[in-house]
Amino acid sequence: MAKMNFGGVEENVVTREEFPLAKAQETLKDETIAVLGYGVQGPGQALNLRDNGFNVIVGQRKNSKSWDKAVADGWVPGETLFELEEACEKATIIQYLLSDAGQISLWPTVKKHLTPGKALYFSHGFAVTYKERTGIIPPEDVDVILVAPKGSGTSLRRMFLEGRGLNSSFAIFQDATGKAKDRVVALGIGVGSGYLFETTFKREVYSDLTGERGTLMGAIQGIFAAQYEVLRKNGHTPSEAFNETVEELTQSLMPLVAENGMDWMYANCSTTAQRGALDWWKKFRDATQPVFEELYSEVAAGNEAQRSIDSNSKSDYRVKLEGELKELHDSEMWKAGATVRQLRPENNG
Ligand SMILES: NC(=O)c1ccc[n+]([C@@H]2O[C@H](COP(=O)([O-])OP(=O)(O)OC[C@H]3O[C@@H](n4cnc5c(N)ncnc54)[C@H](OP(=O)(O)O)[C@@H]3O)[C@@H](O)[C@H]2O)c1
C-alpha cells in the first residue's frame, strides 16, 4: 500500500500498478464469488469481475426483470445464474448487493450460509454500521469486507469498457481468516476500481449519506431551485434561468473543473466572473454550513438511516416515492431542462 499526499494529509492508497490484475486473479483463484442482486451495482461489478477472469456467479430472485436482465447479459441459469439461496450456498465470497432494504429481509438466509472462512462483502457500510437497526450482525468466523465504488454501477461498467477505472474505497470490518486484506484489495481491483483508498465501514456510510444528501444531490438541487426561482421571479425566461443555473454548469464548467480543479476555473474565467465568485463563495459556505452540520449529526445519530429503513419498508413506499419524483419531474425548471437538452446540437439534427 502506498502513502499518498492529499493536500498535505497522508493516506493509504492501492493502485493497479501496485496490485495488478494478475495478482488479484492469483489471490482469488480458488474462490467462488457470488454477486447477490442484479440491480444497479450488481451488474457493473459482476460483469467486470467476469471479464477480468474471476470465477463469478450471480444470485437473483426469479420472476423479476433483474433476472431477465442477467440472462440478457449472458448469465446462464443453472450454470452462472442461481436463485439467491443457491448462490449463497455455492459461494466462498458473498457480495451482498441487494438494495439496503432487501439486505435486511434476506439476511436470515444469507447468514445460514456464512460458514467459517467465507467472506461477506458489501458496497456500503450501512447494514453493518447500523446493525442494531438492520439486524445484520455477521458471525465472528467470516471476513467482513467492503469495496464501495464512488459512483453508479452504470459508470463502473462504462468506465471499465473504456479502459478506465472508477475510484473506490475499501474497508475491513472483521478479519477472521487473516486473508481479509488480500481478498478485499483483489476484489476491488477485480470489480474495476481505478485506485482504492482506505476507510472504515462507519466512515464510508457517514460520508456517503452526507454526500448524497449534500453536494452530490440534495444540496445541489436545493441551490439550483433557489437560484432558478429568484431569476424567474425577477422576470427572466425559463430558458435563460435554466441556462444560467444548470446548463452552463454541467456542459461547460464542470468538465473543466473535473479536469483542472475549481482553483483553475477561478483563475481562468473573466475578471468580472472572477471578482464575483471570489466575493460570494464564502457567503454561500457560511449560509449552508449550519445545514451541513445538522445533516452530519442526523447521519451520525442514525436518524437518517432509520428514516430510510422505515420509509423503504412501508408497503406504499413505491406509490409515495413516485409522487415525490413526479413533483420534481413536473417542476418548471426540469421541464425547461428537457427542452434545453433537446435543443443541444447533438440531439437536434
Ligand atoms: N446504485 C449504485 O450505483 C451504488 C453505488 C455504490 C454503492 N451501492 C451499494 O450497492 C448495494 C446495491 O445497491 P443498488 O443500487 O445496486 O441496489 P438496487 O438497484 O436497488 O438493487 C436491487 C436488487 O436487490 C434485489 N432486491 C431488493 N429487495 C429484495 C428482497 N426483498 N429480496 C430479494 N431481492 C431483493 C432486487 O431484485 P428485484 O429486481 O427482483 O427486485 C435487485 O436485484 C447497496 O448496498 C448500495 O448502497 C450502490
From TrEMBL:
UniProt keyword annotation of Isomerase present: yes
Residues reported in the UniProt entry to bind substrate: S270
Keywords: Amino-acid biosynthesis, Branched-chain amino acid biosynthesis, Isomerase, Magnesium, Metal-binding, Oxidoreductase
Pathway(s) where this gene product acts: Amino-acid biosynthesis; L-valine biosynthesis; L-valine from pyruvate: step 2/4; Amino-acid biosynthesis; L-isoleucine biosynthesis; L-isoleucine from 2-oxobutanoate: step 2/4
KARI N-terminal Rossmann domain mapped to chain residues: 9-199
GO terms of molecular function: isomerase activity; ketol-acid reductoisomerase activity; metal ion binding
Residue stretches making up the KARI C-terminal knotted domain: 200-347
Positions annotated to bind Mg(2+) 1: D208, E212
EC number: 1.1.1.86
Binding site for Mg(2+) 2: D208, E244, E248
GO BP term, example: L-valine biosynthetic process
Cofactor(s) this protein requires: Mg(2+)
Keyword Magnesium: yes
Signal peptide: none
Entry-linked PROSITE patterns: KARI_C, KARI_N
Pfam families xref list: KARI_C (PF01450), KARI_N (PF07991)
Family: Belongs to the ketol-acid reductoisomerase family.
Protein name: Ketol-acid reductoisomerase
Organism: Prolixibacter denitrificans
